[in-house]
Amino acid sequence: MSNSLFIITFLIITTLGCQTSPSHNENSDNFLEPSLAPTKLVIEKDPETMVLIPAGTFSMGNEARNEDERPVHNVYVNAFYIDVAEVTCTRYGRFLKETGYSPNQLWNPEYDRPDDPVVGVNWYDATACAKWAGKRLPTEAEWEKAARSGLIGDKYPWGDEITREKANYNSFGTTLVKSYEPNGYGLYDIAGNVWEWCQDWYSKDYYKTTPRKNPRGPMFAERKVVRGGAWFNNESALQVSNRHKIYPDIGSFNIGFRCVKSVKDVNLGIGEFRD
Hints:
Layout: H1 2-18, E1 40-43, E2 46-53, E3 56-60, E4 73-77, E5 80-83, H2 89-99, H3 123-132, H4 140-148, E6 195-201, E7 224-227, E8 244-246, E9 255-256, E10 260-262, E11 272-274
Parallel strand pairs: 6-9
Antiparallel strand pairs: 1-2, 1-11, 2-5, 3-4, 5-10, 6-7, 7-8
């Protein structure tokens, strides 16, 4: 009797030990550990190259500028991927075609150039497109970390000087994406061309109370953050610390977006592959 009880107990323990944990994903071997993440990524549904922005701490803000950019504070951001270019009319058109999503009033494929950044999209439009692609909008902290590309305290994504040869500003309209040299992380038009929607709600005083790790903005406010400046702005709006805000249901001829994806959400087995 005791031998039978021992055998039964052994079998139960062995069986439980071999069972998969309820939180384990059957494709978990394909999900990336941050330390193993490739430097570039392409997602089949939206095949724009994404580059890896490594995890780390950077100084966010600018003491010498607007009140909402102060105080300068150190922020830690987890590793993520970001599109090297703003979403183009071609990419957005693919989203509209595959989903039946209603185009905005400025959408005019007969006249829009395929490689122009899409404009006229409000925050909800941009969010829907990003979700369709398996991506999302960047947080304000992610956007600034990517724009700074490792530089400390510099005004622009490449240094402290700016000319019309480096970005599209003080002009009369958008330019084709990738018309200018990229920053140190390989990102094109991160300053100028069009403003870029961020995930965060805007608060003028947020930097005074912001979390020091992966801040995501206040819980709610009236307007959403946009970053980077646009073709009609002067050079001041293009500074990497500059913050601007727009009502989320407003689309404009000077606002577009680019997408990001957290490293922890990357699955190389589902339409995602190294570039």
